[in-house]
Write a structure and sequence with these properties.
Elements lengths: L2 E4 L4 E4 L2 E4 L9 E6 L4 E6 L5 E5 L2 H20 L7 H32 L4 H26 L1
Antiparallel strand pairs: 1-2, 1-4, 2-3, 4-5, 5-6
Helix pairs in contact: 2-3
């Protein structure tokens, strides 16, 4: 498990997955940590603006890893808000429009047969069925558009 800590940005990456930890108490002098699961190094800012490095152990990385895991669980638990009535209506309008397009496409073959004079009873039945579906969809669409 690779862990990277970028303290000035309050950022922790675990196996490349970054999470910002704004409420985590980062050491003020900590600059960064790189840990590959076995070994790594820690960088501290020095008073003169430089950086010093030292080996880092899994024990020193553990608090950052635990904070990252807790934040991941917290974010995954957030349930998106229920869509508003307007959002639900817009979604249904888009669905109806797509259904009408699909309905039109489904009518091409029976219409072609009818135009060519080769339509069978099944073609007529299919066209009637598609027209009934389209009328119901258009009625629903009109109601949604007037709300």
């Amino acid at each position: 498990m690779h862990v990277t800590v970028i303290a000035p940005d309050k950022l922790v990456l675990v196996d490349g997955n970054a999470l910002e930890l704004p409420n985590f108490d980062f050491d003020e002098t900590l600059h960064a940590i790189q840990f590959d699961g076995q070994k790594g190094h820690i960088e501290f800012e020095t008073p003169d603006g430089g950086v010093t490095t030292a080996p880092v152990s899994e024990l020193e990385v553990q608090p950052y890893l635990e904070a990252w895991k807790a934040e991941k669980v917290r974010l995954e638990a957030i349930v998106p808000p229920e869509p508003t009535e307007a959002e639900k209506a817009q979604k249904r309008i888009a669905e109806i429009q797509q259904e009408l397009v699909s309905n039109d496409l489904a009518s091409v073959r029976p219409l072609r047969a009818k135009t060519a004079g080769t339509a069978k009873e099944v073609d007529e039945l299919r066209l009637n069925e598609l027209e009934e579906q389209a009328q119901k969809l258009r009625t629903e669409l009109a109601a949604l558009l007037t709300d």
